[in-house]
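Risk register update: the risk of archive-format incompatibility is retired. Evidence:
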Amino acid sequence: MIEALTLVQAEEALAEMGLKKAADILSARVQDAVRQELTYGAFLLDLLEAERAARYERYLKTRMKVANFPFHKTLDDFDFPFQPTIDERQIRELAGLAFLERGETLVLLGPTGVGKSHLAVALGIEAVKRKQATYFITLQKLVGNLRKAHITGRLDRRLAVYLKPKLLILDEVGYLPLDPLDAANLFRLVQERYERGGAMIVTSNITFGEWGKFLGDPVLAAALLDRLLHHSLIINIRGESYRLKDKLKAGLVNPFKERPSDGVGHS
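Archived output:
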């Protein structure tokens, strides 16, 4: 059995090297190794695997926070049978993140509550798990931040925040029309990410034909969509709102009667 003094010294050495998890479990793992008659190599591998797993968990916790997700929902949480217009196999393939490596844009279109944001976040979580820098933000928050930066002369610095991530998730595009300054700032962001091959996920409740009105400039809209859609995959979701799911099943809601007249809304 390893001497107590030697064990303490080993724990201190591990802690000094930043191997905190290994230091914390060393004593217990030594006892396990003796009981199981592990080789020195097997014992060392077991100790290092535990340290690596702990570091990965710390990484995930930090990067999930940095990613700015509004909630934590995975693909396993998504009710695919409720939205039959969504091809589950296609979404699962997207979770492989080949589109991210190719610098493509995934556009999720559909009316209120059909799960666009859920899918965007779930794919973003997969990206974080694979150690890909990811950032989530709603369009209104983004243009508001860019406007403030423009006024204070820090636009380039603020744009860099949204240009740096490997994957930028831009949620709720099209809910409110943009004024010329906000539209111009959005175009610049899309243009620069396009030039750098930065992947994006965009969720929207409006058709592409409505972007001219949304941006207040058909020419700008055409130029922006040209860059956004050049390398893209578009998924149209047509279904009922998840928020009304239980009421719909219980027959308490008439979807044709209570659906908004424009048929669009929250993702």
